[in-house]
Design goal:
Elements (H helix, E strand, L loop, with lengths): L6 H17 L11 H12 L4 H11 L9 H13 L2 H12 L6 E3 H10 L10 H8 L6 E3 H10 L2 H5 L9
Antiparallel strand pairs: 1-2
């Protein structure tokens, strides 16, 4: 599966962080990235364009919820982002899409996601059906277990969640 980020890569990530922080004239810059800086970085470094998703990625990286991404959060976040095991990436995608943080991806959250996903549903196919297929216990929401089972059965699903993972260049 994925391998850990090695020391050299960590040094590169820290260097990138320092460079980006130095370029910013932001008052937070001493501490790290604020949301806008982070968004610019996701856009320029990974080609992300969806604001809602970038926002979610920010929250997923910002472990201590101080609205600022420290160098540690940056390195930890990116190591899952770039090198995570399947397990870690599934967990990460789940967190990104669990919009209200209740440990479930609801139907509405799922719609948001499918609406933005690369897997545009063929128009005659009801996205509701797509969700039913994933919702193993048919309670109208996806638990992490549902989600993980679905992704392990169907690796393409992670592609559908692609907007929150970088284009691996």
């Amino acid at each position: 599966m994925g391998r850990r980020v090695n020391k050299r890569e960590v040094e590169c990530l820290i260097k990138l962080f320092d460079t980006l922080v130095a370029e910013s004239s932001n008052r937070f810059a001493a501490v790290g990235f604020d949301r806008n800086m982070f968004r610019d970085t996701l856009h320029s470094a990974f080609g992300m364009t969806d604001d809602m998703i970038m926002d979610r990625v920010f929250r997923t990286f910002d472990r201590d919820n101080d609205s600022c991404i420290s160098v540690v959060e940056w390195v930890e976040g990116l190591s899952v982002f770039l090198r995570g095991t399947l397990e870690e990436r599934i967990k990460y995608c789940f967190e990104v899409y669990d919009l209200n943080g209740d440990g479930y991806i609801s139907r509405e959250e799922m719609f948001q996601m499918l609406k933005n996903s690369l897997l545009k549903q063929p128009s005659e196919e009801d996205p509701d059906e797509g969700i039913k297929d994933l919702d193993y216990d048919h309670d109208g929401k996806l638990s992490f277990m549902d989600f993980e089972k679905a992704v392990r059965d169907e690796n393409l699903l992670l592609e559908a969640f692609g907007p929150c993972l970088p284009d691996i260049k």
